[in-house]
Amino acid sequence: MPVAIVTGSSRGIGRAIALQLADDGMDIAINDIEQQSASMESVKAEVEKKGRRAIVVVADVSVEEDVKRLVDTTVEQLGELNVMVSNAGIIVTKRLFEVSVAEWDKVQQVNVRGMFLCYREAGRQMIAQGKGGKIIGAASIAAFRPFEDSRRRLRWNLQSMELITDMWDAIDASVAARTGLAKGEAFERSIQSRSAIKKAQTPEDIANMVSFLASDKARMITGQSMIVDGGIVFS
């Protein structure tokens, strides 16, 4: 059976991706940092209930040796690697001029270096196997359209996609503290002003796209950015 690694899969989008790929018939390597061990074990149990094999591999994607171990452990215990989903990411819920150098560096280490390491190590393994594979990354739409701070006529690229996750809860709380809005109001206003269909995505919406890209139906799609945002960004 095909084997997939999903980084940052203890909760949110990563969890939804792991469960969807299990539904698609894949065995899953669940990954996150040590603080999320209990949540990873819970996801592992959910995958196993679907009749698929699952392992938990604690690893920090920003650490080269951790990523190598993640891939090696997956191959040793599940047999091979067919799909890598680089989903792990962090965010700083501050305005640009409030962000410290240490915070900036941490975001780059996880979100940029981490994705590079996952892509590289997965690619090396897939080449060694001699039959290719799928390497998929999940990222914020902030790369295409930033968040606006209308009070100051400023625009920020340090915000996540309009998606119902724990990460958005942190962003919403930060915006509410600065603007005096009630909890959830910043999120709702953002959806109503930015989304063409006036609805927020769920983690399952992203998982459905990953499911398609990881399948043979997407065999002619490569090197593309697929935006799943309800019509916030048009290309």
Quickly list its features:
235 residues; two-stranded antiparallel sheet; 7 strands; Rossmann fold; 12% strand; alpha/beta
Number of strands: 7
- Discrete helix count: 7
Q: At the third CATH level, what is the topology name of the domain at 3-142 and 203-218?
A: Rossmann fold
Strand ordering within the main sheet: 3-2-1-4-5
Main pleated sheet: 5 strands, parallel
**Superfamily at the CATH H level of the domain at 3-142 and 203-218?**
NAD(P)-binding Rossmann-like Domain
The CATH class label of the domain at 3-142 and 203-218 is Alpha Beta
CATH architecture of the domain at 3-142 and 203-218: 3-Layer(aba) Sandwich
Report the C-alpha radius of gyration, rounded.
18 Å
Q: Strand percentage, roughly?
A: 5-15%
What is the terminal separation in angstroms?
36 Å
Low-pLDDT stretches: 149-165
Provide the structure class. Answer: alpha/beta
Please characterize this protein's 3D structure.
The chain has 235 residues and is of the alpha/beta class. It has a domain at 3-142 and 203-218: NAD(P)-binding Rossmann-like Domain (Rossmann fold), CATH 3.40.50.720. Helices cover 44% and strands 12% of the residues. The protein is built from seven helices and seven strands. The chain has helices at 12-23, 37-49, 64-78, 101-129, 166-179, 185-194, 203-213; strands at residues 3-6, 27-32, 54-58, 83-86, 134-137, 147-149, 154-156. The strands form two sheets. Strands 3-2-1-4-5 form a five-stranded parallel beta sheet, with helices on both faces. Strands 6-7 form a two-stranded antiparallel sheet. The radius of gyration is 18 Å and the shape is globular. Mean pLDDT is 85; it is low at 149-165.
